[in-house]
Amino acid sequence: MSSIYPIYTDRIRYKLYHNPSGPIIVDEPKGFRDDDNEFIRSKTLDGIFAEITNDLEFFGNGSDWIRNILKVYGVKADIICTKDERNPITDVFELTKNGFLDLMVIKEGELSTTVKFINSSLLTTIKARENETIEIDRLTTLSGLDIPYLSPSKVALNGRGVLLKSLLESQDDKNSTNQFNMRFQTQNSRTASLAVPMSEVYSSDVKVASPNDSSFTSTPDVGVVESLFYLPNDRDKKLNISIKCKFDIIEPLPIDISDLASDAFLRLYLVVFTDGEDYNVKQRIPLSDNIVFNNGLRLTNVDASYLNSNFELLKGESLSLQWFGGASSWGDFIGGVGVSFGYMRPRFENIESSIDIVENSTFFNSTSNVHFPFNIAQRFLKIFTDRDNILISNVLGKTEDGYDQDGEASLIALSHGFWVREFKELDLDSASDQEIEENRYKSMSTTFKDFYESYFSVWNLGAGIEKVGLKEVFRIEKKEYFYNKNVLIHLGEIVNGEFKYIQVNNVFRTLDSEQFNSGIEIGYDKITEYEEVVGLDEYNTKTTLTTTLNKLEKIYQRVSKYRADSYGLEFARRKRFLEFPTEDTKYDSSIWLLDLIRNPISSIFKQRLWQDDFDVQPTGVFDPETAQNLRLSPVNTLLRHGWVIGSGLVKYPLDFIRYGSSVSNSRLTTTINGVSRAENGNIQNNSLEKARTDGWIVEFEFNVDYDLLQKIQGKTLILGKEIPNFYGLVAFKNEKGIIETGYIEKISPNGVGKWKLKKYNSEQDG
């Protein structure tokens, strides 16, 4: 098809455009003048979208051209339909409206072709795909187009200091055993052992185990795994161990004590095994006195205890709490002729035992792959649309992405469980069949909706569709971008070279219920509880708060789908592939937000610590020197949403947002710019960033002529950056002749021109 067409000389022209087919000028399609073109602010993204929802009927060359495009390129073809009007002053054609033809909704008639007309092909595609789970590392788009591998960056994980707490206790159903069963032959010495049965009450140490009463062995110099309460150690460490044990003991069969050597013994021991899973006895530490046997022995309330706050346990060593006993036979048992054996068979009853283990635990450093948010968002858009370079984001973009500086949230990276555990993606071309079969690695998988909602939650971001010429781009920025405080649209006219406001018509006002919240829920969705008791120290969980508004039930909810908890990250990190290559963990599919900082001497990024952002060391948390993701804590996240939350609180500056509850640690306190904030503290309303809106909606009528429509769809250069005018303030003369301002919520240009604005908070400037 040719790309050269005659030039129309009338006042309006319509064009169809498809890349690579080029443009074509067509007759006016039926329905173009009747469309309900509206500018509407999204309630989820905060960007403003020009919505067109009508059908266009094309005739002649337009109908033929559309059918041919459909035949050659299929329903995925993007066809742009534009309307150009001559400027009444310059007489030059200017673009006044453009949109896309949705070929999924098409009707071919005898003389015409009818197609649905939409404003944004990009937005339509995103909405259709945003809930699909996508492997970020996939090598094809959803249409099958090959795309290059997305190379990850590296971060050094120095680890989180962890106070590991574990408690084992005897259970009611385990308070009696008779399996200590030794048989002696004449002139024979025997020893045997039996672990004290216990069960975990709680444990944050993966090495803690529950010994059971099936651990009886008559070869006590070599242990068995069933007897252990602490499995073979993975590194040298120091433990705080407290043991208490009380029990009754019964020897049910009378024995002739004279037939037992004087060295007969039975004691409670803490046993140290060495050599890993060979379980060779290294040391037995007695916890009780020797129990002397008599006929029909019955002892009650045998009491033993042990306390060591600095117990050194080396790599490969393990621990057991066990009864250990033995004796030597000098003659016949029970004095019977021909009897050559007897028994030492004590039974233990009414067992009350506990083992308390505490470790101030550190783990050797490791690394993890990460992806940064700009690259992930761009990857999603490429996978969805096959298009390159359609993301613009000053807040997420980095210098490597072509920006002058790193955006505020650009280094909040993503990693997932397998990367944290240092699993590596298997090279299928060189891997053996066995390696492929045993490989447990899975790529990071998520949805675009989870991605943008998580980042929007932690950093108060928004998104919109903008047009650069006829090209659509997806913009992600801080929400302030979409509520610019400059007046960019004035409702009036030029009279004698000077601007004059014109009073608007049919004004009425309503409260905006969306801006009034009785409660706040903020934080992280995936963390409800930890199995590890140490999780009670984790601060990056979910927090609820209440506002002073008590006449409605509406919650301001900003909860990330991704995790930011440092303890969960640390527990995953300690399950390294090197030591646990075949073990599945509950962390494997988790995705973490990691707040990073550049390393001036290396390309490997570092985790941000309190010194990078805060005035003094945080309090209310264990080992604050290794505390991570502090900027992402619920209270610090809430403050970034302050000006939005404050819209409904403008009239109550001295009241408070009050802490309600938290899943875990709410004692964390951080200090920045001289102001300390506790996670469980209350926040006075007037300490929030000033609200940009005041909770009111104002609606009115004002004619949208050619010039005003061009202004609405235009841009203004502010501090070197082009800002779409519809994100700025609209200034208008109200029903009382007073100039007011507000942000566009909705404009219906057709007819009388209907406007709906979020009223600007004029106290912002006071």
Account of the 3D structure:
- Strands 3, 4, 29, 32, 42, 45, 46 and 47 form an eight-stranded mixed sheet that branches. A six-stranded antiparallel sheet has the order 2-1-6-7-8-5.
- Among the domains are: 12-119, no CATH class; 162-361, Sandwich (Jelly Rolls), CATH 2.60.120; 485-509 and 693-765, no CATH class.
- The model is unreliable at 1-9, 254-262 and 330-340 (pLDDT under 50).
- It is built from ten helices and 47 strands.
- 39% of the residues are buried.
- It starts with 11 loop residues before the first strand and ends in a 6-residue tail after the last strand.
- Helix content is 11%, strand content 39%.
- The chain has 766 residues and is mainly β.
Shape: elongated
- For this structure, the CATH topology of the domain at 162-361 is Jelly Rolls
**What's the total count of β strands?**
47
User: Can you tell me the CATH architecture of the domain at 162-361?
Assistant: Sandwich
Report the uncertain regions.
1-9, 254-262, 330-340
Helix count equals 10
User: What structural class do you assign from the helix and strand content?
Assistant: mainly beta
Helix content: 10-25%
User: Could you tell me the mean pLDDT?
Assistant: 87
The level-1 CATH class of the domain at 162-361: Mainly Beta
- Largest sheet entry: 8 strands, mixed
Distance between the termini: 62 Å
Strand content range: 35-45%
Query: How much is the radius of gyration in Å?
Result: 37 Å
